[in-house]
Amino acid sequence: MENQTFYYDNRIxxxxxxxxxxxxxxxxxxxxxxxxxxxxxxxxxxxxYTTFGRIRPIHTxxxxxxxxxxxxxxxxxxxxxxxxxARMFSxxxxxxxxxxxxxxxxxxxxxxxxxITTGKEYAELEWPIDILVAxxxxxFGWNMFGTILKxxxxxxxxxxxxxxxxxxxxxxxHIVNSxxxxxxxxxxxxxxxxxxxxxxxxxxxxxxxxxxxTTPYLGLMYYFLPKAANRxxxxxxxxxIHFWALIFLYIWAGxxxxxxxxxxxxxxxxxxxxxxxxxxxxxxxxxxxxxxxxGAWDKVREEPVLKFMVVAVTAYGMSTFxxxxxxxxxxxxxxxxxxxxxAHAHIGxxxxxxxxxxxxxxxxxxxxxxxxxxxKKLANAHFWIGTLGIIFYAVxxxxxxxxxxxxxxxxxPDGILRYPNFLETVTQIMPMYAxxxxxxxxxxxxxxxxxxxxxxxxxxxxLVADEAASAPALAAIASTRSQGESKHRWLERKPILFLILSxxxxxxxxxxxxxxxxxxxxxxPSIASVLPYTPLELQGRDIYVREGCYTCHSQMxxxxxxxxxxxxxxxxxxxFVYDHPFQFGSKRNGPDLAREGVKTSxxxxxxxxxxxxxxxxxxxxxxxxxxxxxxxxxxxLDISTTPKKIRVMQTLxxxxxxxxxxxANDDLMKQAQMIADDLKTAGxxxxxxxxxxxxxxxxxxxxxxxxxxxxxxxxxxx
Amino acid sequence: MxxxxxxxxxxxxxxxxxxxxxxxxxxxxxxxxxxxxPKTEEESFSQLPLGExxxxxxxxxxxxxx
Lengths: 718, 66
Fold this sequence. Notes:
The structure holds two protein chains of two kinds. In chain A, 62% of the residues lie in helices and 3% in strands.
């Protein structure tokens, strides 16, 4: 067959590579800024756009979707063309993908700063941006499959299997978790509520880790590690087992984010069992990566690229051992809501994703610019500073997590909590937060060195925008299996079938977990005294979501003595049936708020306390790390949205009486006036139409429903 | 129909067991198949990323589109 000449598109690879570095630096700097706010809360400058609750989603989304996202596309666009011996299917689609993705990132950052958020971690984007994400993701998939279908290599390599699984699973996760009914252009309510919303969210959240931060990067590992070491992958058979077992198991593990919560026990057990089993394929992948270097370890001493990759794969191994351990209920009791989870996430993000990204970029940039890396010495310096940064980041947080957990749990010989004031347990670990910030700063220093080194490399070379290559076209052969061809080998030349099988494998887990959760009534026992939020509370709840309160406060009291002593009765699934979205939270930088409004609880505070606390937390607790929300005391509540919000809630099955939307604001004003009057008795003069009044109404409602004596039933949700 | 069937399932906790069995079946079939793959296929596969081009660190001048 005659050779055909074609050209690889390196310009799109370069664009994504530069975007990776740019957004990586921004995302890390915002992370450092957030870390410094733990030490100096006033660094928020007391303005809404820079408070922790708003910048934390900017940091997480920037790192996940901007830094790692662009990193994925850099590696995919480079490796896919080489592995298929074909230029990308369409330059136009490549450009739409690139600019569309950058636009999404800008929209995301702006919307979070302005408080436009769904309040669901790593899925905070509001519905118009969600639709844009889905559209751009389809463009990516279209371009990828177009390239695969016009390939000049018969069999698709393991890296491409992982790209396919990534594409199909992320599409499903994103669509299912983002289903919502819009109130207006900037606000929507998810169709799920309470524990069901939590299950869908963490099915998504966990698999965002699995199929955005892991599977595409495993694809990159399978391509770039052999390239950098100039060695074939250790075991083809292991890669088959690794791939299929990993994508089958990962999708089930989401409920481990909800252990010891009010999620039904069967779902929690399912999450635990499959999380433990995940060790095997994960370590299979790690072993396959590390053993690819057999006989080439001497190169690791010389080549910074390989150093980065080895630490990345090792960090992957550590994270994927630690994750299943954290899925044991007893260990999860320590790790959940403490800084352990934050440390765990950063071993993955800084070690696995970050270091693999830098390794790939150090290898790839000189190749596409037809030059040599400007300075190996600088790259080595980056490696050591970055590695120290990871250690300095993670160790203090592990230490702090265990310390804080032990303080939460400690009782005096008389059987009362040794540290009843939550703030004491935060103050104790402030040195650890300082250590974490130092670690983060070190890591960023390394990243800056990388940017300088890569900029100098780029300057010394010239981009080979269209790189010539040649290969014969694929000869037509029978689509059935040829003699002696194994089934999997046959499957590797059937990319569409491969896509369908991957889809089936990931859907099995999803269907097993999520469908029964919705259809079996016993999963969420209803509680007659649980009523919908009043209009004022509903508006207050939306402010709670807008300000990102869930980034620091949980609303989930676990059934531990230490928690029921501190916060009150443990949380029940039936209490959250009107919570669109759920607000369980995943980290306690402040106390749990699930029973904040219960007057007999240890935590109860009067309206005046909340008013003063929102305006100036340090006035009430000098050591508090909560930022000021003083604009809530000044801003008028927008009640024009109330009727629409009530109607959307009715559509979602919340049993407000028919026609209630038209009189909801009357009730809202009455309740607001009562709170304003109460504040007046405490010497606080404020108008009832301020945002803070709505937020006070919401927090004073929290957890109170089950304390009411047999309230006449509003029909519970069916 | 599906709603009726599922809402009447008793002992939903059996789902974990069922899921485990399903995975073990899937895994066993995959493992047996993989172990039977001939060595020749394995070798040609492993070479895939290495055989695609000639360069590792720099591109020959005549491979660059003018």
